[in-house]
């Protein structure tokens, strides 16, 4: 796409990165997806001559940090509770002065908490579906009445569509909550926006082309994301002013949440009104064969190896020149 002009790479010699830990796996509910992503990143960096080594999980990283075995970290852990998107591992790396890819402590922790991300967006006038924060013992039926069916019930701190249920009838609310409470943290009940499901990748200060996701089934669930081969990804997902608007909103949402480096912002577009609604920010998005950031980057002219290089470059000091 001719509208995307990327600056020249800041470095051309892979030796300038030193030894790189590709942090993957861990113990979150998204660990296997992370391992798949990590293998792809590792292969891409090595293909470009980078001295990259896989490190599985936070305890292994902590040991490596103490022993000063690496010069920087490419974080591709997903999720929380042993994943790398909740600010915990970012704090560990900050304490050791270790450069790392992706968002800092605040942006990571805030984005993992969907309720508090919404609170920040709403305070700035950014659009997001109406919601109710559910605590243990709350009346879910009353909450659904306040929002109006249909609604979505999901854990407030999980990704990859884990624990998510779309509820169209009051009788199905209890089973939706039963599924969501299997995961740690608060629950979120959200107004269901019916329409197009879109996502916008962010690389540095650039919002890449949007992707409209068209699953063969009714919903873009875990199976459609990581298993199915018949999900369609239309990129760019929109045209003209609508494409510009969604990219502007996504970049504003990313910055408002304290994020940096790279990530992905998920958005719904209401079928009737055409309005956009922000859903969440992913601060360490998937890099699998089904993943969306590589698809969008490719449309903008960046191949997978170049994308990984550009992400890793962000760990270098600003004054580093090619």
TrEMBL record:
Reactions the enzyme catalyzes: 2 D-alanine + ATP = D-alanyl-D-alanine + ADP + phosphate + H(+)
Details of cofactor binding: Binds 2 magnesium or manganese ions per subunit.
InterPro entries listed in its UniProt record: ATP-grasp, ATP_grasp_subdomain_1, D-Ala_lig_Van_CS, D_ala_D_ala, Dala_Dala_lig_C, PreATP-grasp_dom_sf
Pathway: Cell wall biogenesis; peptidoglycan biosynthesis
Superkingdom field: Bacteria
Gene Ontology CC terms: cytosol
Broad class of enzyme this protein falls into: ligase
Residue ranges annotated for the ATP-grasp domain, each copy included: 118-313
Positions contributing to Mg(2+) 2 binding: 280, 282
Nucleotide-binding as UniProt keyword: yes
PROSITE patterns, per database record: ATP_GRASP (PS50975), DALA_DALA_LIGASE_2 (PS00844)
One Gene Ontology term from the biological process aspect of the record: peptidoglycan biosynthetic process
Gene Ontology MF terms: ATP binding; D-alanine-D-alanine ligase activity; metal ion binding
Signal peptide: none
Residues in coiled coil: none
Keywords: ATP-binding, Cell shape, Cell wall biogenesis/degradation, Cytoplasm, Ligase, Magnesium, Manganese, Metal-binding, Nucleotide-binding, Peptidoglycan synthesis
Enzyme Commission (EC) number: 6.3.2.4
Function (record text): Cell wall formation.
HAMAP family associated with the record: Dala_Dala_lig
PANTHER family, alphabetized: D-ALANINE--D-ALANINE LIGASE, D-ALANINE--D-ALANINE LIGASE B
Listed name of the protein: D-alanine--D-alanine ligase
